[in-house]
Task: inverse folding
């Protein structure tokens, strides 16, 4: 009896899947012949019922721990799936996530949400690869300005990657004055981005252009 | 789960056999010092068979009165992001993950003197919990939880032990009060902690650019008054942010999207309750909590707050 439980506990600690536990449970009743083993076979039945005074204290403990952890025998497969779902349903991936620290899981969740949001926007709209040094023409709809569509043309002098909040800085000449604006790349107000030209630059942020006001559209 | 089965089974066996001479004592009770009193707590099946003041609490939808208070919910702060609503305005979003909230204990006026529900969130291994905590979960018949928190409610909002509270407890568009432990800032100086302005950076100010300056008068009173603002530990205390707007809920993944900031770092536990100041229409909120009906289809799409049909930007004309 004790050895049976110990073997199950060992199998579990070695990362055995539910299937291996099943095999373990199935074979052991055939191996041992004692009356005590009958009780253990009953234990491993689908509906785990506490046997009262027949089961030693720590045995019941161990099995309860097993069933609670979702790695348990056949009948509790449904229970295991149910308990998996609240944790893994948050992540939408079938394998259950190892929940060690809440902040790591929290960051993982945010990562996934970010990726999904980006994928969704990318599938709806065609967003070109905007890098520093691109000369861009874009159509922007400003909701505050009574939804007028304005066309902006300028050079991208920097891009900041942050998932759905990826932004790029556009430097353009407005009425003879150089103006820099920051736009979120995945905003629904940006109707269209067209890349007119790509300049060869050797850095990611082109802030040196602020000092060089030669020629238009630079 | 086995603990829950054991308690329910024992109760049923007891009821069936009408307290025969041989009482089935669970092995855990052999080692506990409590008297073997099998008083019935509230089962999911509504089996209110206890003695005298046994209260039958059922998991059924009810009607919300003007002074009713529902439970709150325990969530995990996942992080912040931004979303665009359907009119193109940007909404800063905090994502809360309502992880597996289950009612762990019901406190009634007869036994404990107050009307409250103790919720548990998350999961925890038995080896990571102390024995008293494990015993508490086992006695109530609920799985082992990571965080417990009590929410005072009115009597009509009590729920039986084991009820799951999901994200659909809240309605997008309502206001909530959000409580959390703020980020710790350590030993903070006067400028950070109390917003003092410090001293000039130059012009002869010697060795006191960020100090708090004077702390009082001279011989009269001759002491520093209490509550004088000085450097000290900042952060790491419980604070409540009120009237936070619920923008969206995701019932498939138990996520709650709130507008704005929420106290605490990523991964900390956040307690969300209905707002006290901006109360919504009682008929809109599921009372005492959201119960999935059989006939209803499982809603898997995220529910977004209703922003109205009129474009708020065009209405400025």
Result:
């Amino acid at each position: 009896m004790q050895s049976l439980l110990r073997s199950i506990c060992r199998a579990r600690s070695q990362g055995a899947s539910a299937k291996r536990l099943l095999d373990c449970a199935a074979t052991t009743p055939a191996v041992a012949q004692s009356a005590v083993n009958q009780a253990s076979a009953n234990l491993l039945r689908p509906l785990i019922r506490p046997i009262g005074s027949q089961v030693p204290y720590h045995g019941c403990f161990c099995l309860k721990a097993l069933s609670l952890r979702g790695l348990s025998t056949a009948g509790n497969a449904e229970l295991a799936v149910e308990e998996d779902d609240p944790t893994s349903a948050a992540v939408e991936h079938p394998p259950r996530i190892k929940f060690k620290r809440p902040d790591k899981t929290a960051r993982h969740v945010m990562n996934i949400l970010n990726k999904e949001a980006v994928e969704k926007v990318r599938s709806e709209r065609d967003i070109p690869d905007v890098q520093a040094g691109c000369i861009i023409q874009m159509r922007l709809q400003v909701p505050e300005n009574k939804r007028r569509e304005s066309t902006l043309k300028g050079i991208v002098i920097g891009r900041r990657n942050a998932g759905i909040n990826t932004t790029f800085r556009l430097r353009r000449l407005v009425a003879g004055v150089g103006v820099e604006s920051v736009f979120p790349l995945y905003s629904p107000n940006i109707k269209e981005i067209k890349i007119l030209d790509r300049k060869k630059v050797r850095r990611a942020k082109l802030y040196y252009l602020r000092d060089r006001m030669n020629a238009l559209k630079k | 789960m086995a603990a829950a089965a054991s308690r329910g089974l024992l109760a049923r066996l007891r009821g069936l056999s009408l307290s025969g001479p041989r009482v089935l004592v669970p092995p855990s009770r052999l080692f506990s010092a409590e008297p073997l009193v099998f008083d019935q707590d509230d089962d999911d099946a509504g089996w209110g068979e206890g003695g005298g003041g046994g209260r039958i609490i059922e998991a059924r939808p009810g009607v919300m009165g003007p002074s009713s208070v529902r439970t709150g919910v325990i969530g995990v702060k996942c992080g912040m992001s931004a979303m665009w609503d359907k009119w193109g305005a940007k909404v800063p979003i905090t994502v809360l993950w309502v992880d597996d909230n289950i009612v762990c204990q019901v406190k009634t006026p007869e036994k404990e003197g107050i009307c409250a529900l103790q919720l548990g969130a998350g999961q925890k291994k038995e080896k990571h919990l102390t024995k008293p905590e494990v015993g508490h979960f086992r006695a109530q018949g609920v799985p082992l939880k990571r965080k417990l928190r009590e929410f005072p409610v009115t009597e009509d909002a009590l729920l039986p032990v084991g009820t799951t509270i999901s994200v659909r407890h809240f309605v997008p568009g309502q206001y909530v009060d959000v409580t959390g432990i703020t980020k710790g800032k350590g030993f903070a100086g006067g400028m950070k902690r109390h917003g003092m302005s410090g001293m000039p950076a130059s012009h002869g100010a010697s060795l006191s650019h960020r100090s708090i300056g004077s702390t009082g008068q001279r011989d009269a009173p001759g002491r520093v008054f209490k509550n004088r603002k000085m450097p000290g530990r900042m952060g790491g205390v419980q604070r409540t942010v009120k009237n936070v707007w619920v923008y969206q809920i995701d019932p498939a993944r138990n996520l709650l999207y709130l507008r704005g900031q929420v106290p605490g770092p990523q991964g900390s536990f956040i307690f969300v309750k209905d707002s006290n100041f901006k109360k919504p229409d009682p008929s809109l909120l599921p009372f005492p909590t959201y119960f999935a009906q059989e006939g209803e289809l499982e809603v898997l799409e995220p529910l977004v707050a209703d922003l109205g049909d009129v474009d708020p930007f065009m209405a400025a004309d």
